[in-house]
Amino acid sequence: MSSSNQKATPKAIEVPNPMQSLENERRNPLFSVKEMTTFIDGSSKNVALKHAIFQELERDPNWIIDDYPNISLSELRERTMKKVQGVADKLMNESRSTFMYRMSLISVVDPGFWTRFGVHMGLFLGALQGQATPSQMNYWVQKGALSLRGMIGCFGMTELGHGSNVAGLETTATFDASSDQFVIHTPTSTATKWWIGGAAQTATHCAVFARLIVKNKDYGVKTFIVPLRNPQTFELLSGINIGDIGKKMGRDQIDNGWIQFTNVRIPRSYMLMKYTQVSSDGKVSEPPMAQLAYGALIMGRVTMVSDSANTAKKALTIAIRYAAVRHQFSTGPIGSPETKLLDYATHQHRLLPLLAQCFAMNFASKKLNTEYETLSKNLEIAKSPIETKLVLNDLKEIHATSAGLKAFCTWATLNIIDQCRQSLGGHGYSAYTGLSSMYQDFAVHCTWEGDNTILMLQCGRFLVSSTESFLKGKDTPKNLNYLKKASSENKLSTCSSDDPDVVCGLETLKEGWACVSAYSILRAHKLYSKKISEGLTQDQAYEASAAARLHAAKMHVTAYLYHCLADAVQLPECSDNIKEPIVLLALLFGASAAVQNSGEFIQSRYFNSKQINTLRNKVDDLCVKVRKIAVLLIDSFDYPDYVINSPFGRKDGNVYDSYFNLVKRLNPYKPVPYFDTVIKPLLNRSLETDDGPKLEIDN
Amino acid sequence: MSSSNQKATPKAIEVPNPMQSLENERRNPLFSVKEMTTFIDGSSKNVALKHAIFQELERDPNWIIDDYPNISLSELRERTMKKVQGVADKLMNESRSTFMYRMSLISVVDPGFWTRFGVHMGLFLGALQGQATPSQMNYWVQKGALSLRGMIGCFGMTELGHGSNVAGLETTATFDASSDQFVIHTPTSTATKWWIGGAAQTATHCAVFARLIVKNKDYGVKTFIVPLRNPQTFELLSGINIGDIGKKMGRDQIDNGWIQFTNVRIPRSYMLMKYTQVSSDGKVSEPPMAQLAYGALIMGRVTMVSDSANTAKKALTIAIRYAAVRHQFSTGPIGSPETKLLDYATHQHRLLPLLAQCFAMNFASKKLNTEYETLSKNLEIAKSPIETKLVLNDLKEIHATSAGLKAFCTWATLNIIDQCRQSLGGHGYSAYTGLSSMYQDFAVHCTWEGDNTILMLQCGRFLVSSTESFLKGKDTPKNLNYLKKASSENKLSTCSSDDPDVVCGLETLKEGWACVSAYSILRAHKLYSKKISEGLTQDQAYEASAAARLHAAKMHVTAYLYHCLADAVQLPECSDNIKEPIVLLALLFGASAAVQNSGEFIQSRYFNSKQINTLRNKVDDLCVKVRKIAVLLIDSFDYPDYVINSPFGRKDGNVYDSYFNLVKRLNPYKPVPYFDTVIKPLLNRSLETDDGPKLEIDN
C-alpha cells in the first residue's frame, strides 16, 4: 500500500492526536485549578498530605494495582495481606486524623484492602472502644488489638439467616456459673455467622454478637470476644468451624468466611461489659437507657458519604477525560473531522449533571463531617442532663441525616460509575479501563452498614416524626427549619417569576428544593396521621406510609445536597476565582434534579409547567457552559494516574497507546492450550452425512 | 445449652421453614400457572420444546454451570469450547426456527457461550448471508462455514479507535490488479481490530471490515474474508498479529482479541461482492441504493429484546422467591414472628412494578418478532417497485422501533437485575446467588450492536421525521397513529374523570400514554423545526434537539410496551382464566410508569395533580393485589432450578441449606497458604517501641 492511497481519503480516517485533544481543553483556563483543588480538599495542608500518601503507595511494590484483573483470588488475598503490616505501622505512629485521612485515600486506591484492614480497625476495634470497659480495653490492647501484634480481629454480627435485624440473631452465649464461663453456640444452620470479613484466612479473634442467656432468661444480643485460631499455628481452636465464603461480586481482597461455634467456652470477662454486666453469680445489670450505639453507626455512614464523593471523582475523571479525547461521527459537513464525544449534547447531558452531583456530595460530606465532629466533642463535654439531652437531639438528627445521605450518595455513585462505564462505549466492558471493577467493588456500599432502603425509611421516619413534633410546638432540628416554616404557616411558597435567570437562580432553587422537600414530607406525614386516626399503631402507620416516606427522604436529601453546594459559594475558603464554576455546578445540579422531579415541583405549585420548560432550556445552556470547564474541574480533583488506574483517565490523554500496552503486557501471546484436545477434533470431525456405508431399509 | 434455654425466647429467634413459606404462596392459586406459561411462551409446543432443550443441557456434563465463580478464565474458555461441537451438530440437524429457539434459551443458561457461538453463527455467517454472492456462499459453506468443520469464523468490525461509526474505520483493503489480490493492512495502532470475539483462541477466518481502495480511490467500508490461522496447526498466518484482550466485566467464555494486518494478501474473490463488485481490471461497480444492511441489524435487536425479557424473568425468579422465604423484622406486636420481605410495602414497590415491566417486555418482544417475520416474508415476495417501497417503509419503522426497544429493554433489564440483586441484601453480593454475574454478563447488551444512547437518538430521529411527514400529509407508520391523530388535530386529549377506577383504567392509560408520547415527540419536533428555521442544517437541528429527542423516544417506547401488555388481554390465546392477572400487571406497569413521569403527564394536561395522586394510591393497591399472585406469576415463567442457577431462586424454597452446601462444596477447607510467610511474621514482629538499647542524645 503506497502512501498516496492513504492520502486519498485523509479526512475520513484522520484520528486526532489524543494528547493534543486533551491539552486543548486546558488552554486559557477560566479559573485556578489549584485553588479549586484546595477548596475541594479543604486546605492546602490536606492537598500536600494527599500527595505524600499517594506517592508512598505508588512507590511501594506491594501496592501495584494495575494487574488486578489478571491475578487469581488467592494471589490477590496474599498480596493484600502483605500490605497490612505497613499500614498497621502507620496506625501506631501517626495522629488519628492523619490516619483516617490516609484510610479515606486508600479506599479510593484499593477498596478491597480498605475493607480488609477496616474490619479489624473499624469494626473489631470499634466494638472494643464502644463496648469494652477501660480495663477490658487495656487487656486487649496489651494482647495486640491496636498493633496487630499477637492478634487480628474480625466482627461476627451477621448470620446466614439474619442481616439487618440484629435483634433477630440466633447465636447464643449461655452463662455457666459453675465454671464462670460463657458457652458460645450456633444452634441452627441459619445461625451460622456469615459474611464475616477476615474469618476465612486472617483473624485470630472474633467479636461475636450473641444472645446473652443467663439462668434461662434471654437478655438480647450482646458482644463477646471469642478466640478462633492459635496465633502461633493458625490451627482452629476446639469447637470452631470456619469456611471460606469464596467469590464475591467485588472486594475479593478480603476473605469473608462463615463460622459455627459448637459449645465454645470463653471466660466471663470476654463479654464486653461497658453497658450490660454479668456477675460471677449470674446477676445481670442492664443500663438504664438503650445502648448508645448510634455513634459507631454514624461514623461508618459519614465515611461512606465521603467515599461516595471520592469514588465518583475517580469515575468521572476517566469518563470526562476520555470524552475529551475520543472522536466519533461528525456533526459538521461531510469530510469534517469526527466530533469529540464531549461536544455532543447527549454526552454532556449524560455526564455533566453527574459531575455537578459529585461536587454536591463532596461539600455535603464536608458539612456532615464537621457536624459529626462538633457533636462528638459536645457529647464529651456535656455535663448536665439538660446539656446531654440537647446533644442527644442533635445526635438523632445527624443519625437520620447520615442515614439518608449514606443511602442517597452510595446509590448516586453506583449510578455515576455505571453511567461513566457506559459512556466509554465498548471499552467500558474491558477490565482494564477501570470502571467495571469500580462498580463491582462499590456496589456493596448500598447494602452494608444498613441496607439503603432501610436507611432511607429511617430517615423518612425521622422526617415524619419531626413534623409531628413541630405541630406539637417542640424543638426544630437544625436542617429542618424549612419544614417547620412550611408546616407552621400551613402553606408553601410559589415562584412567581418568568425571568429565566430568576427561575434558574441559586436562591429560587434553594427555596424550591426546600418547598418540594417540605411538600413531600407533609404528604407522608398526612398519610401517617390518617393511618393513626384509623386506629393503626405507630409502627403500622409508618409501614402503611412507607412509599411516601421513602420518597420524602429522597427529596429531603436532594434538597440537602443542593443547599450544601449552593452554600459552598459563601464559604470564606471559596475564593472569587472559583466562585463562578461552583455557581454553575450548583445551578446545573439544582435545575437538572428539578427537571427530573418536575411532577413533584408542579404538584407542590412551586414551579408551573412553563417554568419547568424554562429550567429545561437552562439545563441545556448550563451543560454548554460547564462543558467548557469540564476537564479543568476534573483536573482539580487532582488524582494522579496511579490512583485513577485506567489508561482512559490519564492526565496526558495518551489513551490508546497506554491501553494497548497494558493489554499486551498483561496478556502476552501464547498458543491456544486446548487446540489439540478440543478445537482440532472439532475442525476435523466426520459428520453423519459423510460418505460411508448407507443403511437402507429393505422393503 | 439446654433446650429450655431456647424455649425462653422462642418467638424472637424462630426462623420460619423456608420451604413451607414458599409453598404457602401456592395454595389456592387464583389462576392456572400452566395456562399462563403457555401464553407467555406462545404455545404449548414451545413449552414442551423448552423443557426438552433444558433437559438436554442439564444432563450434559459439559454444561455444568454452578461452579463458574470458582473456575479460572482459561478453564472457562476451554469448557466453553467443548460445548461448541454439540451445538454445531444441532445447527446442522434441526430446523432454523427450532435452532433459534434453542439459542434463545441457551442465552439464559450461559450468555457467554451464546456469544462465543453467536459470533460465528450470527455475525460471521450473517456477513456471508448478507453480503456474499450465491457462489461465494457456496464456496464458504463447502469450506465448513456452516458445519464448523474446517473453519471457524469471527467478525472484524470494531477497531481500537472506532466503534459505532463504521464509516470511520481505518483498516484498508487495497486492490493490487497485478496479482488480482487485495492487500489488507492496519495503518495505525488505532486501526487495530479490537474486541474481536473468537480472535484470541478460536477463529481460523475473519470477516474484516476495511476501506476498499482501488486506484487510489476510497470506496468506503466493505467486507473481506481473511484467513487468520492454519486450521491444522493453529499457527498464525504470515502478516497476522493477534493478541488476547483478556479479562472483561463478564462473558469471559468468549475470547475477544485484537488483530493487526500487515500487508496481508487475499484473492480478489475473498471480497464479499453481493452489492459492490471489483473486477480483475479494477473496475468498481456499486449498487444503486445504499446496502440493505438494515435486516441483519434488526435481527440482532429483536433477539436482544427477547433476551431482555428472558433474563429479567430469571432475575425476578430469584428475587421474588427469596422475598417469599426471607423473614426480617416484625411489623406486628412485640414477639410476633418476623415478617416476610414480600409483605413489606417498600419491597413490593421495589420488585412488583419490575415484574410487570418484565411481562410488558415479553409481549413487546412477541409483537416485534411477528412484525419482523412478516416483514421478512414481504421483502421476499415483493415484486414491483411500489410493493418494495411499501415494504421499505415498514422496514424503516421496524428499524426505529427495534432500535428504541433494544435500548429501552436492555437498560430496563440491567436495572431489574441490579434491583433484584440489592433486594437480596448482603447475599446479593455473593457470586453464588447468581445476580452479580448476571449483571456483569448482561451489561454489554447496552453497548454492542448499537450503543443504547445512539439507538435511542435514532428512534427519536425517526419520530421527529415522521411528524414532519404527517404534517406534509404523507403516510403514517402503523405504530404512530396516535401521533398522527395528535398532530393533525393539533390538540391532545385530557382525562376528565375523577373516578379512581377510570383514572387507573386500561383504556385511560392507553390514551394517556399515547398522549404523553405524542406530547414529547411534538415538543422535540417543535425544537427541531425552530432550529431549522434558524438556518441550521438537518443534522445540526437534530443534534440541537438531541436531549428532547432522546426523551421523546423513551416516552414512545414506554407507550409501546404498555400498549403491548394492555392489548395482550385481547389476544385469542389469552384464556379467561389468566385475563385478570394480565390486567393487574398492565395497570401496575402503566400506572407506576405514569407516576414516575408525572411531570410529563401534568405538562401535557392529560392528568392533573389530583389524578396523579389517585394513581399513586392505585399503585399501592395494585402492589398488594399483585403481591398475592407474585410467586404464581414467577412459577409461570417455568425455568427449572438448573437454569435459574441460584439457591435463592429454587422452586422448593430450600434457600439456606442449598446455598450453604454450594459454598462448602466449591470452597473446601484448606489451611491459609500464606500464614507462615505473611501472617506469622506480622503477628510476631517487633516494634520500635519494644525494649532494646535506647539511643540518647548527648547534651
Automatic annotation (TrEMBL), chains A, B:
Q: Which GO terms describe its cellular component?
A: peroxisome
Name of the protein described by the UniProt record: Acyl-coenzyme A oxidase
Residue ranges occupied by any Acyl-coenzyme A oxidase N-terminal domain in the UniProt entry: 32-143
Q: Which UniProt keywords apply?
A: FAD, Fatty acid metabolism, Flavoprotein, Lipid metabolism, Oxidoreductase, Peroxisome
* Annotated positions binding FAD: T158, G197
Question: What cofactors does the UniProt entry give for this protein?
Answer: FAD
A GO molecular-function annotation? fatty acid binding
Q: Which GO terms describe its biological process?
A: fatty acid beta-oxidation using acyl-CoA oxidase; lipid homeostasis
Describe the protein's quaternary organization and the partners it interacts with. Heteropentamer composed of five different subunits.
Active site, per annotation: E449 (proton acceptor)
Pfam family of the protein (one): Acyl-CoA_ox_N
Family listed: Belongs to the acyl-CoA oxidase family.
Q: Identify the pathway.
A: Lipid metabolism; peroxisomal fatty acid beta-oxidation
Domain Acyl-CoA oxidase C-terminal residue range list: 506-684
Q: Name the major location.
A: other
Compartment(s) of residence = Peroxisome
Native source species: Smittium simulii
